[in-house]
Amino acid sequence: MQINPLSDVLGAEVIGIDVGNLDEVTFDKVHEAFLEHHVLVFRDQNLPPERQVAFAQRFGELDVHIQKDNKHSGHEAIQVLSNKKVNGEYIGSPSAGDAWHSDLSYTDIPTLCTMLYAMEIPEVGGDTEWSNMYRAYDTLSEEMKQRLDGLHARHTFNRFRNPRVEVPEIYKGIGKERYADIAPPDAVHPLVRTHPETGRKALYLSERFTIGIEELEEEEGQALMDELIAHQKQRDFIYRHKWSLHDLTIWDNRCLIHLACGGVPEGQIRHMHRVIVRGDKPY
Ligand code: SIN
């Protein structure tokens, strides 16, 4: 097994292993690399759904996403992200991840890690970016670190309540009230969380899901969020991945935010299988 860093801020590619067939010793090394690099890219993997699910289960209990309409027909833990259409209907979500976020931060028990497997990739577009939230926290001024200490942020799935994000056409059709019905209750988490495995502190908010800061008046909270959101998206903290066919990526949502960059031209297909592993309550 060879582990090659992909940038100096996060990410490493792992060469020479089949993730469907790892002994305990090799898996422990993979897990160590995951904590060190935060995103791992396994090249050339052969992963029918049951093998992807089995590998994900080695990291913990799988979660089932609330968006039921994108589920794989044979495996409810797999979500299909795809711009493919059959009989005029998308067979998966064409726009999942189109604003910076950390998976399921709008629930009490957000995602530990996400695994995304590239089954079909476009020639152009469809990249993914990750930003390092340890780095975002570490580079704040001491004064800002003290200001954030003890603050909590509110996270919601409901796009209609978040002026920082667009509501895609497909959701406009559902209607505001119906959409609010399928959105789970909000979650409130520390604005700075401690990674349960490394003990390091990471900034924990995002444009997509965070809508306010509990302890502050609306105007002051929104101004602070604007400042932190601009800070967390600095190019220096970001690695951008151009997918190769049959790449499997896994990333740590406890210390990263990520973005599906889009830009796939009409007529080209991006088709991915996503699995999420349940984490624990942020503290
Ligand atoms: C996601 O947000 O989980 C999807 C990222 C991507 O499709 O690039």
Short description:
This protein has a single domain, classed as Double-stranded beta-helix, CATH 3.60.130.10. 23% of the residues lie in helices and 27% in strands.
Q: What can you tell me about this protein's structure?
A:
The model has no long low-confidence stretch (mean pLDDT 94). The chain has a single domain (2-278), classed as Double-stranded beta-helix (4-Layer Sandwich). Strands 1, 2, 3, 4, 5, 8, 16 and 18 form an eight-stranded mixed sheet that branches. The protein is of the alpha+beta class and 283 residues long. Helices cover 23% and strands 27% of the residues. The protein has helices at 24-37, 49-57, 133-138, 142-148, 169-174, 176-182, 218-232, and strands at residues 2-5, 12-15, 39-42, 62-63, 79-82, 85-86, 89-90, 111-120, 128-132, 152-155, 187-190, 192-194, 201-203, 210-213, 238-241, 248-252, 256-260, 271-278. The structure holds succinic acid. Succinic acid binds at residues 81, 96-97, 114, 128, 258, 260, 272, 274.
| Distinct small molecules bound, one entry per kind | succinic acid
Strand content: 25-35%
Molecular shape? globular
First-last Cα distance: 34 Å
Instruction: Calculate Rg over CA atoms.
Output: 18 Å
| Low-confidence residue ranges | none
Number of strands: 18
| Overall residue-averaged pLDDT value | 94
Q: Give the topology string: H per helix, E per strand.
A: EEHEHEEEEEEHHEHHEEEEHEEEE
The tally of structural domains comes to: 1
Give a quick account of the main beta sheet: strands, pairing sense, barrel closure.
8 strands, mixed
The CATH architecture would be 4-Layer Sandwich
What's the level 1 CATH class?
Answer: Alpha Beta
Helix content: 10-25%
CATH superfamily: Clavaminate synthase-like
Q: Given the structure, what is the number of helices?
A: 7
